[in-house]
Amino acid sequence: MITVDGQCLAAFVFGTTVGVLVQRSRWCNTAALRDAMLFKSYRNTKALLVAMMILTVGFTAMISFGNGNPMRFDVGINQFIGLFLFGIGMVFAGACTVSSWVKTGEGNIGALWALLFLIVGLFLSSLMWSFTYWPLAGQTMTGRPNAAGLQFGWADALTLQRDTGVPAVVFGIIQAAALYALYRRILKRERATQGEGKTASAPAPTPVAPAAPALAKIATEQALGAPAALPTLGE
């Protein structure tokens, strides 16, 4: 059994490693969507898709083997509203939560303010949150679809495994395959764009100057078997 000091040391090493990787790679969930839609740049998008594929298969595999402890919560209209508001906040901040930490460490004052009010918002949410906070739901948030509370029920791999009898990792593989198809589509679009760019930037062929009229006349006469006369100065 690992001691408390060992856990702190492991967390420090893991957190430092992840922090360095995020800082050097410029990882940002906001940029993964923003750059793809506005600038047609898919560098962060591809990284996000690869991370989602690995995490999906890894977590569902742990659930299938009984070692996973997934977070279970009701999915409803309130989730969509919250995600929408959070997305607007990320756009205004110009960064996601992860990159806000990185930019703050680099001395970005704007990221510092975004991170500060993110912490304030999370603290206020923790004070007000309860299962009855969503007014339309009340006590109907039971993990099952409920039209009155605008709830869709639990949406996690463990629920699918329990209700269908199919191992959760199977659903993880299906989702990873869909993400991989999207990844391949992005690669195909990038190659097509690069091909168009190379075609547009290729230098135009240098036009070949026509032969002098006198030389053309000599060549014609030689082809016809007639004696060729040397061109005069005027020609």
Task: Give a verbal description of the structure.
It is a single chain. By secondary structure, the chain is mainly alpha-helical. It contains 9 helices and 2 strands; from the N terminus they run H-H-H-E-H-H-H-E-H-H-H. It is globular, with a radius of gyration of 32 Å. The chain starts with a helix and ends in an 11-residue tail after the last helix. Mean pLDDT is 77; it is low at 228-235.
Number of discrete helical segments: 9
Q: Would you count the extended β strands for me? A: 2
Largest sheet: 2 strands, antiparallel
Strand content: under 5%
The helix content is 55-70%
Query: Would you tell me the overall average pLDDT?
Result: 77
Order of helices and strands: HHHEHHHEHHH
Strand order of the largest sheet: 1-2
Shape: globular
By secondary-structure content and strand pairing, the structural class works out as: mainly alpha
